[in-house]
Amino acid sequence: MKSKTNPFLRLAKLTCLPVLLSGGMTLAPSIAAATPVVARDLDGDGIPNSSDPDIDNDGSPNGRDTNVDGGKARSGPYKGKNIGDRILNGDTAELDIDDDGLADDSNAELDIDGDGLADDSPAETDIDGDRKADNASSEMDIDGDALPDDSSNESDIDGDGLDDDSSSESDIDSDGLADDSSTETDIDGDGKSDDSKAETDIDGDGKSDDSIAEIDIDGDGLADAARAELDIDGDSKADDALNEDDIDGDSIKDVDDDDVDGDGESADDDEDDDGDGDDDIDDEDDDGDGADDDDDVDDD
Q1: What is this structure's pTM?
Q2: 129 and 97 in contact (C-beta within 8 Å)?
Q3: Most buried one in 8, 140, 202, 207, CB count within 10 A?
């Protein structure tokens, strides 16, 4: 038999208004009952996964554990038992390396492998904790989100929440070297040198360097046609330097390149051949080779 509900309580529940009881007390139900948030704690040690230095309690700190969220617990309520998953950090099937409830490709995930080092910290040399240095040629997926760094679908190589082609992203591969640094030779961290013939997308934003849609080849936040952009391909050689013979970094020498600045327009149709922001008609060095056009045999 179902128990009857006190009409006063029913009224309070339905209207969420205070109800005066016979004793003179006021019943004021909460409009929205608080839902407790239970933090993930894989090993049951009372430390949430989001701040636990050894999430699976297997004795290997997260920063040195090839499977952060899975192993045999050495102590606590699960001592001697295998807990978590058996998916290695760098596996494409692993979508939340530190099991903190934030997907590895989430903008809110700031420490993918749970090692206590922010993904964009210069001290973080292995973002996804797969034991491959982020700048190693063998590291093909820096943030471990199952999208290869050179994939056209990978828009945030280092998983720091900043799109690779964002003007706010100054270190695309999070190797501690600014994209416009003279010592940064592999901007997108795909293992291909920026001046390599095999490198066709220097900043790893999915746009080919010679595409019309690519307006910032080196991903330094400066448009290739901007006057402030002095090194279009980010190879640390100024575009007008005498030793810069490939301004757009497409591995075609400028003297043989019909599209010197890599903007997708041929020299015949391009009003700014070298992409320095000056129209060719007003530019004393329209091919960007560092020599005045009046003295430049290449322009004759």
Answers
A1: 0.63
A2: yes
A3: 202
Structure confidence by residue, pLDDT tens digits, 211-246: 888 888 988 888 888 888 888 988 878 888 888 888
CB-count exposure of residue 17 (10 Å: 0-12, 13-18, 19+): exposed
148 with 164: CB under 8 angstroms? no
Where is pLDDT greater, at 253 or 112? 112
In this prediction, residue 71 carries a pLDDT of 97
Per-residue model confidence as pLDDT tens digits over 168-192: 888 898 888 888 888 888 898 888 8
Question: In sequence order, what are the beta bridge partners of 20?
Answer: 26
Structure confidence by residue, pLDDT tens digits, 142-162: 998 888 888 888 889 988 888
| Cβ atoms of 285 and 278 closer than 8 Å | no
Joined tokens for residue 118: 């922010």
The encoded tokens of residue 192 equal 């291909």
What b/e string do you get for 267-283 counting C-beta neighbours within 10 Å, with b at 16 or more?
eeebebbbbbebebeeb
- As a whole number of angstroms, the longest Cα–Cα distance in the chain is 103
